[in-house]
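User: hey, got a sec? need SDR family NAD(P)-dependent oxidoreductase folded
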Amino acid sequence: MTSNALVAVTGAEGFIGSHLTETLVAAGYRVRAMAQYNSFSSYGWLETLSPDTLDQVEIVLGDVRDSGSVHDLAEGAEAVYHLAALIAIPYSYRAPHSYVDTNVTGTLNVLEVVRKLGIPRLVHTSTSETYGTAQTVPITEDHPINTQSPYAASKAGGDRLADSYHASFGTPVVTLRPFNTFGPRQSMRAVIPTVIGQVAAGEQVITLGDLRPTRDFLYVKDTARAFLAVGTAPAEAVVGRTFNAGTGGEISVGELTRLIGKLMDTNLDVREDEERVRPAASEVMRLVADATRLRDATGWQPGHDLEQGLLRTIEFFRNPANLARYKTGIYNI
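Assistant: Yep! Here you go:
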C-alpha cells in the first residue's frame, strides 16, 4: 500500500477507531472515516482530533448495516479497516438482535463490498472475548472459541464470515483480535475509565463488578499500531490469518483498581455492585494473550507498559473538558 493512499475506516468515531485514524494519518495515509449516522451530525471522538490530522480525513455519516453506505465508504480505497461494532457486554443481554444486526450483518456487508470492489486489503476486528475463559495460558490463536455472551457470539459470527469469505472467494481479509484495549477516549462501559473517571470526579467509594477476573490490558496507541501493522504487511505474511494483539501480562480487576488508586494518590473504598456483575456462566475469568504470531509476521510489539498507559489515561480524564463528556455517577451499560 502506497503512502498518501486512501484507506477507509468503519467505526472511526469511536475509541479505537479515532486513535487508528490518527495513526493512519501520521503514517501518511488519507482516511475516509465513517461515523454512525445520527440526527446531531456528531462525529464522535473525530471532532477532537487536531486540525492538521483532520485535513487528511474525509468524514462521512453512514451505517455498516446499510450496504450502500459501506459501498460509498469503501469505493476507491486501497484498504478497509472494519472497526464498527456494538461492544458493551451487559447491553448485549438486553438487545441481542442489535448485536447480530451490527456485528454479523454489518460485517457481511463490509465483506461483500470489499469482494465486489476488489479492494486489496480488509482488516477485520475481532475480540479476545470470543475465547471465553482461558483453557490454556497464554492464549494462542488456536485456542478454542467459547462465546460466553451474546456480544462475544456476534463477534465470533463476524469472524467466521471473514474466514469463509477468504476461503470461498479469496477475499484478502486479515483478522486482528485485540485483548483489552484501554486509554484516552474509552467508554465508561470499561473498567479502567470507570475507576479513573470516578476518582477524577472526586469519588473515593468506587463501585465495580466482580474483582477477580484477570485481563491483558493493551494501551490504545499500541492497538492502533497493530492495526497498521496487519494492514500494511506483505499479503503473504498476513492475509487469511488471525492475529492476537496483547502484552502477555495479566492483572486482576481488584489489583488494577488498587494500582490506579496508587497512581492517583487516592485511598479507594472499592465495593461490589450486584448490578455490574455478569451472570456466573457468562463471566470470562481469565484472558492473557500470546501475540507471538503477530510479532513474527509483522515485527509489532507493545510500546507501553501498563503503568505508562494508565498515567496517560489518568492525565486525559483529569482534564475537566474531557471528564465533562462522561457520566461518572451512573452505571454505564
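Quick note: The first strand starts at residue 6 and ends at 10. Let me know if you need anything else on SDR family NAD(P)-dependent oxidoreductase.
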